[in-house]
């Protein structure tokens, strides 16, 4: 009959091995489990050596759990690596698609605006009498109906009159702006009293130059 086993090292190896085995399934925590498994394996080997001529039940169990934990660690690492790789590819693809979409939107926002003013349309606007609350001026409603909502507008008081200033902006190859100021009459109607434009004459001058060149 073999002498009684010295179980302290075997018990410690079994406990650590069991903890390592449980933690080997969990991402990130399995790195700590690998360290615990190595400790359990060392304790198990020492337990086997100490109990060389005795029973080695606990030491064998602890060593086996440690080995199983190490094997499980590397197995799960391989599985998680594939998952992480697929996730990284999908993330990169989504990021690139989003970036490309944003870039396209930015480019289209710079070139495909709704600015439709021409020099002739601007010249056709009638400025009313500011001292008479814009009487005779082009109405705000007519301009909005023809050219749509402006890019910016704000209300303020000028010379005791309630006024509104609106601006249409084009930020394509050539910057163009049309700024219009309206006064509110006694009926609450907004009438044009001041107009200002930048860049509209460039297109007209270019067309004239092209015509002269062809002639």
TrEMBL record:
Gene3D superfamilies: 3.30.1450.10. The chain crosses the membrane at residues 7-26, 32-52, 59-80. Keywords: Membrane, Signal, Transmembrane, Transmembrane helix. This is Immunity region. It comes from Streptococcus mitis.
